[in-house]
């Protein structure tokens, strides 16, 4: 029927209350009931000016629909037999098992980077994310990258000039302070073993992490690179680091359940 239906020319009470129900083999009022109301002053036409839907046979339409469904089922079966099928990952178990990670992004300026990191933290079950100002969540560029992740992730506001005090308080609560920065004493990400409770500090897009905050961290980690460009975008490096923390924690949990 959809091949014969015109969205404008067939927009009428006859189509809605008579033609469609008839082709679906439902109980319908007589067509004369519409013709009697043809003179009624209404914003929606009573009858169709065309007779295409009126002349369409329900059995032909049902046969066409059945064939289409059969073809789709056959196509889906072929896909299942010949290759992988795309599916959505159920993340509830990951979020329950992860946690223990606080990402500090107060030094980051760009809303796009903050939005992307918010989505990454939410997907991988971070405990919370720290930003300079929570007003960033109302930025359209932030929202285009976050895709509502900020509604499901705990986010807190810590001003840049308050970071030293905040990091000290987290250290007293048993969190290890880890900075993502290229320094002379940086440890390769693939070789670093994250502790169960960890605060990851990300640097500013241009200035990186100030020396006074670097000195507070128990470790600096860097991502191995093989290209010419010196560093990764902070959104990318933060995402890789968050994933590695989550991977190690899930691996530890998996091993503990086997023993």
Automatic annotation (TrEMBL):
Matches recorded under InterPro entries: Alpha/beta_knot_MTases (IPR029028), SpoU_MeTrfase (IPR001537), TRM3/TARBP1 (IPR045330), Trm3/TARBP1_C (IPR044748), tRNA_m1G_MTases_N (IPR029026)
SUPFAM superfamilies given in the database record: alpha/beta knot (SSF75217)
Family as reported in the entry's similarity comment: Belongs to the class IV-like SAM-binding methyltransferase superfamily. RNA methyltransferase TrmH family.
Pfam families, sorted: SpoU_methylase (PF00588)
Keyword entries, A-Z: Acetylation, Methyltransferase, RNA-binding, S-adenosyl-L-methionine, Transferase
GO biological process: tRNA methylation
The protein's name in its UniProt record: tRNA (guanosine(18)-2'-O)-methyltransferase TARBP1
Protein task: S-adenosyl-L-methionine-dependent 2'-O-ribose methyltransferase that catalyzes the formation of 2'-O-methylguanosine at position 18 (Gm18) in a subset of tRNA. Selectively mediates Gm18 methylation of tRNAGln-TTG/CTG and tRNASer-TGA/GCT. Gm18 modification can enhance the stability of modified tRNAs.
Family matches, as CDD domains: SpoU-like_TRM3-like (cd18091)
Domain tRNA/rRNA methyltransferase SpoU type: 101-242
MF (Gene Ontology): RNA binding; tRNA (guanine(18)-2'-O)-methyltransferase activity
Recorded coiled-coil stretches: none
EC number: 2.1.1.34
Catalyses which reaction(s): guanosine(18) in tRNA + S-adenosyl-L-methionine = 2'-O-methylguanosine(18) in tRNA + S-adenosyl-L-homocysteine + H(+)
């Amino acid at each position: 029927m959809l091949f014969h239906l015109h969205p404008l020319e067939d927009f009428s009470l006859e189509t809605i209350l008579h033609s469609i129900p008839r082709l679906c083999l439902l109980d319908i009022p007589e067509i004369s009931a519409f013709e009697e109301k043809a003179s009624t002053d209404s914003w929606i036409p009573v009858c169709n000016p065309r007779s295409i839907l009126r002349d369409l046979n329900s059995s032909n339409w049902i046969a066409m629909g059945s064939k289409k469904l059969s073809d789709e089922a056959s196509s889906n079966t072929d896909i299942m037999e010949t290759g992988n099928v795309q599916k959505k990952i159920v993340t509830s178990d990951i979020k329950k098992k992860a946690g223990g990670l606080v990402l500090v992004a107060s030094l980051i300026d760009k809303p796009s980077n903050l939005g992307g990191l918010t989505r990454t933290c939410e997907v991988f079950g971070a405990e919370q994310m720290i930003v300079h100002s929570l007003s960033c969540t109302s930025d359209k560029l932030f929202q285009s990258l976050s895709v509502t992740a900020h509604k499901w992730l705990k986010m807190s506001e810590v001003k840049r000039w308050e970071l030293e005090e905040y990091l000290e308080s987290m250290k007293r609560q048993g969190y290890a302070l880890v900075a993502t920065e290229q320094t002379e004493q940086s440890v390769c990400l693939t070789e670093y073993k994250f502790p169960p409770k960890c605060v990851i500090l990300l640097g500013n897009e241009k200035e990186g992490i100030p020396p006074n905050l670097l000195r507070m961290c128990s470790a600096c980690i860097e991502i191995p690179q093989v290209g010419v460009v010196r560093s990764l975008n902070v959104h990318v490096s933060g995402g890789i680091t968050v994933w590695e923390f989550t991977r190690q924690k899930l691996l530890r949990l998996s091993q503990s359940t086997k023993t």
